[in-house]
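Researcher: Predict the fold of Oxidoreductase.
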Amino acid sequence: MLKLGVIGTGGITKQFIEATQENGSWKLTSVFSRSLEKAEQFGHEFSKNVRGYRDLHQFFSEGDFDVVYIASPNSLHFEQSRQAILAGKHVIVEKPACSNPSEMKVLQRLLRRYNNVYYFEAARHFHEPNFLKIKETIKQMDVIQGATLTYMKYSSKYDDFLTGNEPNVFSLNFSGGALQDLGVYLIYDAVSWFGIPNSVSYKATKLRNGIDGKGVALLNYQDFTVTLNVGKTANSYLPSEVYGLKETLVMDNAADLTDIQLINGSEKQNLTQKSAVNPMTAEVAAFTSILQKPLSLDNKQKMEDWLAVSVQVNRVIYDLRLSEKIVFRADKEFR
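Model: Structure tokens for Oxidoreductase follow.
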């Protein structure tokens, strides 16, 4: 049984815990929140034996858990992951794993020292059957002429921003913005399906504080360009597409993959794979299979392969931000 500690008490944490319960190989034991009362209340929704913490050092030193799931504001991911690794805890950190490549390099160095610790970025769709089916299909296409990937979803926090406040997801201080929050899904798609781009650029619609509310990114490859449409201030209902020669691979959404069609003229082939109701089920299953056999060299290699993708995605996001001169507080701290 894998003992789980969590940082954060939002809806995404609840969804992750529910996926671990569905899996059946996990037990929630510890919850960290800035409010002890909130931590305890949240934990007791799942079990009266869960212990709450408001001191992070105490959480890592006294908490009875093997794996920590981190779902705090983006800018806190790095330091909390660093403390977890130093405490010998396996890490599952919500995307984006880090604010910039400098933070990522620190964690990579730590992981080489603490080579018994596993570290995963929780880009949930990366492990889903439909994501893997698209990757397999693209490999089989003779010609790739590019792609257009879209993920635009009106944020529940944007109304608050419009009243004059600055929620974490729309703050440079907390490493927010459309590209960092939703764009990471699209960049995972591009890097996993097409490889590392030769060059990138980003044109953003900036909000009053300089954060990107929405934008269009171009990822340039040797023979084609991938266009990314991302936003947190509007909704888009456009499908996403990968262009072959005569065939086009069409998906309903580049992040929430629930329908895949390969279209060639009047011919349409349904490639959709069955997905779980909880979108975190697949990633929890993937992490479980590795963490239950931590001494397996194959599992260690699999983690290293996934980490390599995380590092590449982190670099692409950073380069896109720099092309639009979007600078986080976390970037300045490493100068």
